[in-house]
Amino acid sequence: MFQTMSAPNIDTIVSLAKRRGFVFPSSEIYGGLGSAWDYGPLGVELSNNIKQSWWRWLVYERDDIEGIDSSIILNRLVWKYSGHEETFNDPLVDCRDCKFRMRADKIEGKCTNCGSTNLTEPRNFNMMLRTLLGAAAEEDDPFALAYLRPETAQGIFINFLNVQIAMRRKLPFGIAQIGKSFRNEITPGNFILRTREFEQMEMEYFVRPDAEHWKLVDEWVELYVGWFKSLGISGENLQLHEVPKTELAHYSSRTVDIMYRYFPERAEEERQWEELMGIAYRTDFDLRTHSSKATDAEGNRANPDSTEDLSFFDEAAKQRFYPHVIEPAAGVNRTVLAVLMDAYSERTNDKGETRVILKLSPQLAPIKAAILPLAKNKPEIVGMAKAIKRSLQPVLRAVYDDTGGIGKLYARQDEIGTPLCVTVDHQSLEDEAVTVRDRDTWEQERVKVTELAEYLQRRLKAAAPVPPVADTPSLDI
Ligand code: GAP
């Protein structure tokens, strides 16, 4: 019987993640680095599986989205015209008593370290991480200054025309990208929820200026809720948040955040929820600001540095305009954390022992099947188990494990979310059959080795929910 149906708090996942090789504190042998985390053998698989699911869902299964991979370091002018140099700030305050530094908008007038109200006035702190380019760069050389991107989105906007022309696209169409972003967060924390280096899955969906932008935001919200559910996240742990006008980013005229219940241990009124992703209507702000011909309110050229005009000519309507953008922007790391928290469960066996079972959706499970020999001192059984592992590997991620008794081996696979275990026993040598055990029901079935690959694939497919498919416009190129 399952006692716990999702993780009681983030700390439970921090400890499981380290113990079982999902996520380790980074630079730990030198005392760590505050907010940096390293993905271990199982974490990298889980994170890759999430990214693959997203890429398949948007780039492969739809007909209106292209993928790209742009640079992390861009010309500094990108960040001047995107508005990030001027406005990508967080309000910073210092506690005069304990010298602790924190974000003014995340506290209620009190130091989060010592409780003092003796705080400095808030001042703006730009969150872009700086670096210097070139071998001869001096510390304060403004020509050498460059930034590590704080969002992947700008790499998409500056490539809008390249992609549109190369792929002969008409509106509407989208450009998707997965990659690292960097923010010098004032108060990183809560494991992989807020870090200075993180990964984003962003998509910019370009539409006509007269499209129904508000409706499109709602549609993308609904699609993403469906996608998160297909990853195994329960709808009860998801919530929508319409961002108030006063809190919108400088480029957005509407943003809806999809929130996840990362803090179930807190009382309802104490912020149980934190942003998992946001869906923003960015208007034509970005394409216009990077365009050579766009003008400001006084009719002056707004961007004298750009050499390209990122407008679109609609052949049918004989109109030129700057496309508007709907942007669903999700975090890989926050998705990893939400998936782990939601998959966490505990179950007590007949002997009263409590076991952790990670009920990961089969598509996300780092290992799909573990091949376990019942007796590791019997060469024929070991040989048969290893041969089965090798034969399965081309069709699904399988591992061989003989580092404990069968009970321990099952428990270990349950804890890392392996959906199916295959046990090779003495009988297998006679009847060329193995026992397949289900992670969630602990039920066992005998399967012929010759039918095993097909059987496992069928079981995994049947247990994996399918993400929602949107009607996509027909290709007209
Ligand atoms: N291009 C729009 C944009 O970057 P955002 O809401 O600032 O929007 C999108 O970021 C997503 O990136 C967030 O919803 C979150 O999942 C993730 N993210 C942002 N900052 C993060 C951080 N410091 N650590 C981990 N993930 C972060």
Features of the shown structure:
binds glycyl-adenosine-5'-phosphate; alpha+beta; single chain; disordered C terminus; 5-stranded mixed sheet; 13 helices; 477 residues
What can you see in these coordinates?
It is a single chain. It is built from 13 helices and 24 strands. A hairpin with a 4-residue loop joins strand 15 (312-314) and strand 16 (319-321). Helix 2 (41-60) packs across helix 9. 27% of the residues lie in helices and 26% in strands. The model is unreliable at 473-477 (pLDDT under 50). The chain is globular. It starts with a strand and ends in a 14-residue tail after the last helix. With 477 residues, it is an alpha+beta fold. It has helices at 10-19, 41-60, 76-81, 84-87, 153-157, 160-166, 213-230, 285-289, 332-343, 379-392, 406-416, 426-431, 452-463, and strands spanning 2-4, 23-25, 37-39, 65-68, 89-94, 101-103, 123-126, 129-132, 145-148, 173-182, 197-207, 238-242, 254-260, 274-283, 312-314, 319-321, 324-331, 344-348, 354-358, 369-373, 398-400, 420-424, 433-438, 444-448. Residues 151, 153, 183, 185, 194-195, 198, 200, 202, 275-278, 327, 329-331, 333-334 line the site of glycyl-adenosine-5'-phosphate.
